[in-house]
């Protein structure tokens, strides 16, 4: 069966309202997601950058963009319409778009609940998770939603101190307790924390992540297999990132930057088949705002030891790169949940630096797996994916996406108790200016 524009369903698959609960719901990425979805739905702009709006996904029976309902958690109180105006002033959103989709932005803003803990909030982890999950169930119930997908788009968090559960893990646990699939678009811990890993495996819910692949690492996942396939020896690969916004400030923290860089370097190891010299530096340049520049310097050897260099420059708007992928992931994960799938959605590794589950590391092979997955979403089959879909070639170097979530024991404050209902979790760290 074919889907009409914006992924709307056929008569045999009536429209179902799907919630998208954004952790960091008033940040740059989240605001662009809401404004962009409204703009595409209204026909004001094409769905550029949305893989799920290409012909290969027309039969996947995904939720229509018009049937997505947005909400979320955040610790800041700047309303989405005002946030959108600021993004338009910075060139992130087109001029006039905030006014054109004001109603949709305002509706989403009414569904945003306070994150936490804020200063003076003395609730323990269990109480925070319970409160976040209650917000999600309420969102689903009031809006008459069939399901909701939780997507973490908050700024990268530093490592938690004193053994405390990190914010992203509290929100991920809340999503599971509310019966919601979870997607981690950030390098923050989320379900990777040992306390949450087994809970995720037992939840019966699908999940995906981590750390969206939108810029420098996207390019690395293409170039790495190229060197491997051409038998060119990479001697060193170094990179530098300049960025501003909230995530630029967050990544000024060495621990947060280390979490971010680990994913970038892992892609190289997986696609090249070995670790190489070189590091990635991240510099906070507030004047850049939501724009970023990434340089890579690649030293490699050719035939008879001839030494050569490749240098690349990537300049982009982070929110405009990330937002269409967030919409893709919400729709694909919602459809997987509708089909009763559970566990890591390894076929979504195409979107991530550090994917959960097992799968290829090169972008071409990842896209082939994604297309196979889309076909099963359309047919309802959940068994082995069809063979022989290898157009576009493959990547050398293999190396899955980091394996399944690390297992771990330990129950903190009853957080691993199962929850009922269908909702989503909330983000405790700030929201503005996410960098991927």
UniProtKB/TrEMBL annotation:
Q: Name one GO molecular function term.
A: inositol-3-phosphate synthase activity
Pfam families in the record, alphabetically? Inos-1-P_synth, NAD_binding_5
Q: Can you give the residue ranges of the Myo-inositol-1-phosphate synthase GAPDH-like domain?
A: 215-319
Where do Gly residues bias regions lie? 391-425
Disordered: annotated segments: 377-436
Q: Which residue intervals are annotated with compositional bias (Basic and acidic residues) in the record?
A: 426-436
The record's listing under InterPro entries reads:
Myo-inos-1-P_Synthase (IPR002587), Myo-inos-1-P_Synthase_GAPDH (IPR013021), NAD(P)-bd_dom_sf (IPR036291)
Alphabetized SUPFAM superfamilies for the sequence = Glyceraldehyde-3-phosphate dehydrogenase-like, C-terminal domain, NAD(P)-binding Rossmann-fold domains
Q: Domain of life, per the record?
A: Bacteria
Please list the GO biological process terms of this entry: inositol biosynthetic process; phospholipid biosynthetic process
Instruction: Identify its protein family.
Output: Belongs to the myo-inositol 1-phosphate synthase family.
**Protein name as annotated:** Inositol-3-phosphate synthase
* Species of origin: Streptomyces tagetis
């Amino acid at each position: 069966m074919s889907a009409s524009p914006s992924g709307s369903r056929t008569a045999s698959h009536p429209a179902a309202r799907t919630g998208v609960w954004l952790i960091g719901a008033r940040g740059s990425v989240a605001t662009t997601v809401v404004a962009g979805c409204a703009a595409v739905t209204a026909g004001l702009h094409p769905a550029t950058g949305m893989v799920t709006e290409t012909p290969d996904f027309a039969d996947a029976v995904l939720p229509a963009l018009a049937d997505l309902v947005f909400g979320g958690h955040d610790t800041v109180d700047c309303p989405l319409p005002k946030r959108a105006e600021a993004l338009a002033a910075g060139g992130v959103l087109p001029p006039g778009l905030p006014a054109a989709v004001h109603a949709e932005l305002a509706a989403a803003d009414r569904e945003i609940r306070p994150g936490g803990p804020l200063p003076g909030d003395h609730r323990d982890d269990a109480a925070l998770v319970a409160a976040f999950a209650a917000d999600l169930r309420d969102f689903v119930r009031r809006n008459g939603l069939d399901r909701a997908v939780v997507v973490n788009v908050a700024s990268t968090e530093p490592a938690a101190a004193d053994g405390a559960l990190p914010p992203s893990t509290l929100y991920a646990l809340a999503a599971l307790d509310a019966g919601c699939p979870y997607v981690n678009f950030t390098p923050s811990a989320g379900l990777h924390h040992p306390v949450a890993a087994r809970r995720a495996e037992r939840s019966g819910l699908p999940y995906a992540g981590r750390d969206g692949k939108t810029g420098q690492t996207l390019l690395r996942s293409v170039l790495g297999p190229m060197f491997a396939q051409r038998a060119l020896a990479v001697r060193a690969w170094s990179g530098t990132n300049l960025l501003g916004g909230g995530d630029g400030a967050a990544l000024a923290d060495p621990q947060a930057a280390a979490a971010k860089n680990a994913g970038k370097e892992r892609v190289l190891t997986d696609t090249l088949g070995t670790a190489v010299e070189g590091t990635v530096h991240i510099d906070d340049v507030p004047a850049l705002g939501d724009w970023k520049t990434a340089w890579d310097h690649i030293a490699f050897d050719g035939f008879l030891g001839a030494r050569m260099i490749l240098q690349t420059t990537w300049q982009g708007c982070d929110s405009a790169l990330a937002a269409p992928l967030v919409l893709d992931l919400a729709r694909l994960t919602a459809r997987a949940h509708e089909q009763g799938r559970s566990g890591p959605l390894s076929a979504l590794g195409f979107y991530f630096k550090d994917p959960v589950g097992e799968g290829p590391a090169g972008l071409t092979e990842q896209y082939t797996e994604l297309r196979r997955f889309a076909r099963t979403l359309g047919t309802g089959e959940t068994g082995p994916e069809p063979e022989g879909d290898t157009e576009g070639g493959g990547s050398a170097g293999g190396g899955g996406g980091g394996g399944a979530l690390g297992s771990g024991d330990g129950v903190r404050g009853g957080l691993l108790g199962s929850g009922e209902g269908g909702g989503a979790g909330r983000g405790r760290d700030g929201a503005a200016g996410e960098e991927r």
